[in-house]
């Protein structure tokens, strides 16, 4: 099996949790995809980086990140997967609100102003979190080239309606889940 198939197995084995849950969007579901169980796993995290770099190989960007917390390990996996290939890829973290102390930055990490960046998320239902990150990135002067998620729960239309290319490594159908 290749990286894509291996990562799908990690997701179905570790991340899909069955039972009634309320999603961050406020919607209810009979299952939850807890991708932190994958993005923070010693064997699965490197796969996340490689799969998402492959998925976006035709996009030009030099920094990756999104709204904390779901995007953080995704961005770091991509940063670490890029390093052995010689690709210089920075990561950043977008806070939900600016800090009231220190440097009072909303976006942590290397400067994003004037750079081509990729907004990421582990999974997205409405696109709300990733679009919040996109707004902050644009306000900071970054050029957002697109959005990529590990698992799409339905956010594609909202992200594309905001004028951004959108890709997902897996759909719910790929994981044997019904929306």
UniProtKB/TrEMBL annotation:
Residues reported to bind orotate: 125, 153
Q: In which pathway does it act?
A: Pyrimidine metabolism; UMP biosynthesis via de novo pathway; UMP from orotate: step 1/2
Question: What reaction gets catalysed by this protein?
Answer: orotidine 5'-phosphate + diphosphate = orotate + 5-phospho-alpha-D-ribose 1-diphosphate
Q: Which residues does the record give as 5-phospho-alpha-D-ribose 1-diphosphate binding sites?
A: 95-96, 99, 101, 121-129
**Enzyme Commission number:** 2.4.2.10
Keywords, A to Z, come to: Glycosyltransferase, Magnesium, Pyrimidine biosynthesis, Transferase
**Molecular function (GO) terms listed?**
magnesium ion binding; orotate phosphoribosyltransferase activity
Annotated InterPro entries: OPRT, Or_phspho_trans_dom, PRTase-like, PRTase_dom
List the Pfam families.
Pribosyltran
Q: Identify which cofactors the protein needs according to its UniProt entry.
A: Mg(2+)
Q: Where is the Phosphoribosyltransferase domain?
A: 108-157
Q: Name one GO biological process term.
A: 'de novo' UMP biosynthetic process
Summarizing the function annotation, the protein's role is: Catalyzes the transfer of a ribosyl phosphate group from 5-phosphoribose 1-diphosphate to orotate, leading to the formation of orotidine monophosphate (OMP).
* PANTHER family in the record: OROTATE PHOSPHORIBOSYLTRANSFERASE, URIDINE 5'-MONOPHOSPHATE SYNTHASE
Q: Which family does it belong to?
A: Belongs to the purine/pyrimidine phosphoribosyltransferase family. PyrE subfamily.
Q: Assembly and partners? A: Homodimer.
Identification of the protein by name = Orotate phosphoribosyltransferase
Which species is this record about? Micromonospora noduli
Q: Which gene encodes it?
A: pyrE
């Amino acid at each position: 099996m290749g990286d894509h198939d291996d990562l799908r197995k990690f997701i179905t084995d570790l991340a899909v949790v069955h039972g009634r849950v309320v999603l961050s969007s406020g919607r209810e579901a009979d299952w939850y995809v807890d991708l932190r169980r994958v993005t923070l796993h010693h064997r699965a995290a490197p796969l996340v980086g490689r799969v998402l770099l492959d998925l976006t190989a035709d996009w030009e960007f030099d920094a990756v990140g999104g709204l904390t917390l779901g995007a953080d390990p995704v961005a770091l996996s991509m940063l670490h997967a890029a390093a052995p290939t010689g690709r210089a890829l920075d990561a950043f973290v977008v806070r939900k609100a600016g800090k009231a102390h220190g440097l009072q930055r909303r976006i942590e990490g290397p400067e994003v102003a004037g750079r081509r960046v990729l907004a990421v998320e582990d999974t997205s239902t409405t696109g709300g979190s990733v679009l919040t990150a996109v707004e902050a990135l644009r306000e900071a002067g970054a050029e957002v080239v697109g959005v990529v998620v590990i698992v799409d729960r339905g956010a594609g239309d909202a992200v594309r309606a905001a004028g951004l290319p959108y890709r997902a490594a897996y759909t719910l159908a790929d994981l044997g889940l019904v929306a």
